[in-house]
Amino acid sequence: MARIEADIVIRGGTVIDGTGGAPIEADVAIRGGTIAAIGPALDAKGSEEIDAKGRLVTPGFVDIHTHYDGQAVWDSHLAPSALHGVTTAVMGNCGVGFAPVKPGSEGTLIELMEGVEDIPGPVLAEGLDFRWNSFADYMNVLDAKPRDIDLCALVPHAAVRVFVMGERALALESANQADIAQMRDIVAEAVRAGAFGFSTSRTISHKTLKGDFTPTLRAQEEELSGIADGLRQVGAGFLEVVSDFNQPDPETEFGLIRRVAERAGRPMVFTLTARHDRTEHWKILLGLSNKAAAEGVQIRPVFPPRAVGILMGLQGSQNPFSGTDSYKAIAHLPLDQRVAAMRDPAVRARITTEDRFEGSNFALIRRILWDRMFPFSDPPNYTPPKESSIAARAEREGRRPEEVAYDMLIADEGQSFIYCALTNYQNWDLAPSAELLKHPNTIVGLSDGGAHVGFISDASFQTFLLSYWGRDRKEGTVPVQELVRRLTSDTARAAGLKDRGVLKAGMKADVNVIDFDRLHLHRPDMRYDLPAGGRRLVQRATGYVATIQSGQVTYRDGTATGALPGRLVRCTA
């Protein structure tokens, strides 16, 4: 066999190929953006060689749930996801996005994204130029911009509904037959142009900042089935659904989405978290989805590998006292001046005794109790014990929880955060995630990369999954090859991607080289680098020796190299 002339040769690493198979020590040769060969002691010469001895070599990670719909227009570096080994991301989830759009309705789509995904309106207004009307036009704009990861786009229901129905969509009116036919045709046209499917939201937690529900909340089964016909006609794409599964019960709502999936004849994924107020719902939905899969209906739950965590602080968009009149009166002040004002005993007394929910636009605060709020440590601890909660500390110290939380906020000159476990932390542990990891029909996801920039930093899920579940968990770990499969081939196939997710000759050369022993997360920091000076939480990681995208090294030791081989991916099946 002739010597392989390669662009990159990764030498002597522990290759975990993404299939779930046992690790092997081998070289990986990359040429022309694809994997040329894998094997022990390859006769290969690379223009660049990477010493991977004692390190993991994995496929690039595929994240099935992100919201880079806006950032991808103005930014070539899709942090934070790109900092955590992600080489392909699916965006357009939860039914919100920026296409299709009619002139004059751009502000409506911005308001929806601002409220649902906490991306500030001024950031979007400055960063988006809306050089498009149809979804195909939008994809062409994305296609023209190089970036550090590949992107796949879903067609968002809210944008389609507003495009077709206008004010009637915002008023939550039911669609008529003409509306449904137009929505079906729009979605079918978008999928033919390369969209990866269709997303919708049926949850009351998705609102604008004004408190208006997302336009898709009350879409009837007839509308959803009509749109699903568009996917059936094209024979491509998948459906993504977010729902509360409350009305009237989980079984009824699941039955509706199952019928829609069967009508489409296409795969469906839905968000599954273990809520603290409905402790058995996730188990019911897991059972229903497993039953559907056994009966040949592809409906898979997407779950987080840790609690969905909110970071409340004076730097972020929310804190426990954001709704009080006294805090609102000083919220506009620079951080140092705000901290100084909050140290005034009179201000402190007012803020800690006023109704903290009055006028707050962050309804999720109501669902978080003091016993699931914790000091956020450095390095981060995502499994804090109950006794470290604000409630427990207040009881020990004979103080009100409000006083303890207030002290945490002004500590470290206002740089501190309070970690709030919103879901998946029912019994102050990650038992739901542990159970969901056992089921082959489930998908690890919900990182929300690109969204919730002022109070959630979960785009580090990939790093957490590997480091915690594969190495640090005291109750027992999961084999690393299974975790890698979860992050690569499993998510790739769920999205309909066939050319990546596995290290194999002929596959796309998206690769991570990871120092597993050193892999860890840093405390998120607040950056002010979005358009209009907008802020966002960015969490870095140590341990990613190299990330390779389409055969080019895009990151070395967590630092961007300047290479931008990432592109828009168009669905073909």
What characteristics describe this protein?
TIM Barrel, 25 strands, globular, 573 residues, single chain, nine-stranded mixed sheet, six-stranded parallel sheet, alpha/beta, 3 domains, 19 helices, 30% helix, Urease, subunit C, domain 1
CATH architecture designation of the largest domain? Alpha-Beta Barrel
- Cα radius of gyration in angstroms: 23 Å
What's the main sheet like? 9 strands, mixed
Low-confidence stretches: none
By CATH reckoning, the class of the largest domain would read: Alpha Beta
By secondary-structure content and strand pairing, the structural class works out as alpha/beta
- Estimate nothing, just give the exact number of structural domains: 3
Describe the structure.
Strands 1, 2, 3, 4, 5, 18, 23, 24 and 25 form a nine-stranded mixed sheet that branches. Strands 9-10-11-12-13-17 form a six-stranded parallel sheet, sandwiched between helices. Strands 6-7-8 form a three-stranded parallel sheet, with helices on one face. With 573 residues, it is an alpha/beta fold. Strand 20 and strand 21 form a beta hairpin. It starts with a strand and ends in a 13-residue tail after the last strand.
